[in-house]
Write a structure and sequence with these properties.
Layout: H1 2-34, E1 35-49, E2 56-61, E3 68-69, E4 74-78, H2 81-151, H3 157-224, E5 227-229, E6 234-236, E7 246-247, E8 255-269, E9 281-286, E10 289-301, E11 327-334, H4 340-345, E12 351-357
Antiparallel strand pairs: 1-8, 1-12, 2-4, 2-7, 3-6, 4-5, 6-8, 8-11, 9-10, 9-12, 10-11
Helix pairs in contact: 2-3
Length: 359
């Protein structure tokens, strides 16, 4: 009798287990039809690297590890003495370029004044030549008339010689004025050449002046870059630098993590991707807070699988092909209705489990 009772208990327990297993199986099946779950997911935040634009030795550090900072706060200062010297050099070069520019302007003004004076002199010379030609013509006519009268013995030799001298004087004066006119024309050509050269020199001087100004602006800008400030609000990572340390342009010193801007990147298998759409609701469970379920929504899908973004992406044409299920990164944003205090405690890199509600 006891053996039969034992068999009945075993059969009853076994039956209950079968029923429970069937119910659980049905539940999991129905749940899988409306949900896609993965624990290959992490919390992400914007991490802005602090990168100096110029090289130099660190003079002072005003922050420490994990410190909260505001946009514009001074993080560290690079020794600016070398840049002060460069600014003084640039100012001296600019002053020399400005003086050269003024000299070039004075040269071109002098040359243009000489050209103008030569033009006025030549105009005057043209009038003098015309007058000299008139005087020469009159003296030539008088000479011819006196010559005829002298041959006829109607005038004295002295009168004839006087008329001849007057003619020769008028001819000599005309030649002198013409030589002066040619000399003035030559001076004008020289002045015009100087003016052309000065015009080119002033362009060169302007270019040198602009270059010197650009060098000064660059030197002053580089000095401003010796003060490194926070580009946004956030929390610092480990500040792994010391005063006196040499830093290079483009070197990543530490990070600012934007604490208020966070999301989840979940890597779903490609076989789970079929029914997932942008805008679907997501349940998020963080390992650090297992008793709290956060809510969010799918905002975007990666344009390629995670393997394609690796340093050495797989190439299935090499001959050694093994089919592997790929994973696709999915970006999930937290809803505004989540507990803000707990959201603020979440850190980048924390593991989470996400449950996408397909229906």
């Amino acid at each position: 009798m006891e053996k039969k009772a034992t068999n009945k208990k075993f059969i009853l327990i076994f039956g209950v287990l079968i029923v429970v297993g069937i119910i659980y199986g049905i539940y999991k099946y129905l749940h899988s039809q409306a949900h896609e779950i993965t624990d290959d997911a992490q919390i992400e935040k914007n991490m802005t690297p602090i990168i100096p634009r110029i090289g130099g030795y660190v003079d002072k550090i005003y922050v420490k590890d994990n410190q909260e900072v505001k946009k514009g706060d001074t993080l560290l200062v690079i020794d600016s003495r070398d840049f002060d010297v460069k600014i003084q050099e640039a100012k001296a070069a600019l002053l020399a370029a400005e003086e050269s520019y003024e000299v070039a302007k004075a040269d071109i003004n002098t040359a243009q004044a000489t050209v103008s004076a030569s033009d006025a002199t030549m105009q005057s010379a043209y009038g003098s030549i015309d007058a000299a030609k008139v005087r020469l013509q009159r003296a030539q006519n008088d000479y011819e008339r006196f010559k005829n009268l002298y041959e006829k013995r109607s005038i004295t030799k002295q009168q004839f010689e006087q008329a001849e001298a007057t003619k020769n004087e008028a001819l000599a004066q005309l030649k002198v004025i013409q030589e002066q006119q040619r000399a003035t024309s030559f001076q004008k050509n020289i002045a015009a050449s100087r003016s052309a050269v000065s015009s080119k020199q002033i362009k060169v001087a302007e270019a040198n002046k602009a270059r010197a100004q650009a060098v000064l602006d660059a030197a002053q800008l580089n000095k401003k870059y010796t003060v490194i400030t926070a580009s946004e609000d956030g929390q610092l990572s480990k500040v792994n630098i010391q005063p006196g340390q040499m830093v290079q342009p483009g070197q990543s010193l530490f990070y600012i993590i934007k604490t208020q801007d966070l999301w989840v990147v979940a890597n779903f298998k490609e076989t789970q991707f079929n029914k997932m759409l942008v805008g679907q609701e997501v349940g998020i469970t963080v390992d650090a807070f297992p008793d709290t379920e956060f809510t969010g929504k799918i905002v975007s899908f990666s344009p390629a699988t995670g393997a394609k973004f690796s340093i050495l992406p797989p190439d299935n044409a090499t001959g050694n092909f093994v089919k592997t299920v790929q994973r696709l990164p999915v970006k999930i944003a937290f809803d505004d209705k989540n507990n803000k205090e707990k959201i603020a405690r979440l850190r980048s890199g924390m593991n989470v489990t996400v449950d996408v509600h397909l229906k």
